[in-house]
């Protein structure tokens, strides 16, 4: 009896195997594309921080914006990024963010950074609950965020 690929019971190429595998994949698993996107977001933040430190250097700020925007697109996916920026409830944040990039390109970096920060806060305001839950999971940092009053009382009570 001749065996064909994809027909035997133990073959990984049988119909439906790939679909079941994708259901069992974890949502937070990092693919290669997401790793590259995370790296680009990190470089974007680094270049933006260096641009602010070096007296609002226009070149570093522009590179930071390009890296950050490309990283977000790779991290979320092209379609999700487009939906994020063109969603009716996010128009205010999208316009502010893109206007901030424009101000940086036309040599008004201080105004551009301020407008961009406002745009990011408005644009990603829907993600704050998820970010909050993620930050609570970090071992020491999460405890500081969850119990700030206890921490303040402990430091002020012991010094007085």
UniProtKB/TrEMBL annotation:
GO cellular component assignments: Golgi membrane
Pfam families reported in the protein's UniProt record: Got1
Extent of the signal sequence: none
Record membrane topology: Multi-pass membrane protein
Keyword Metal-binding (UniProt): no
Domain of life of the organism encoding this protein: Eukaryota
Alphabetical UniProt keywords: Golgi apparatus, Membrane, Transmembrane, Transmembrane helix
Membrane-traversing stretches: 36-56, 62-85, 97-128, 134-156
Compartments where found: Golgi apparatus membrane
Similarity section: Belongs to the GOT1 family.
Protein name: Got1/Sft2-like vescicle transport protein family
Source organism of this protein record: Forsythia ovata
């Amino acid at each position: 009896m001749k065996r064909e690929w994809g027909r035997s019971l133990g073959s990984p190429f049988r119909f439906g195997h790939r679909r079941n595998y994708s259901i069992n994949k974890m949502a937070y698993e990092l693919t290669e594309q997401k790793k590259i996107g995370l790296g680009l977001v990190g470089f974007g933040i680094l270049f933006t921080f260096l641009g602010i430190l070096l007296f609002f250097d226009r070149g570093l700020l522009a590179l930071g914006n390009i890296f950050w925007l490309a990283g977000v697109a790779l991290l979320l996916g092209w379609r999700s990024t487009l939906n994020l920026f063109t969603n009716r409830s996010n128009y205010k944040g999208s316009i502010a963010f893109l206007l901030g990039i424009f101000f940086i390109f036309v040599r008004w970096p201080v105004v551009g950074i301020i407008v961009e920060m406002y745009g990011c806060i408005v644009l990603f305001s829907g993600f704050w609950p998820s970010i909050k839950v993620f930050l609570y999971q970090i071992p020491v940092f999460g405890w500081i965020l969850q119990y700030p009053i206890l921490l303040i009382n402990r430091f002020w009570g012991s010094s007085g």
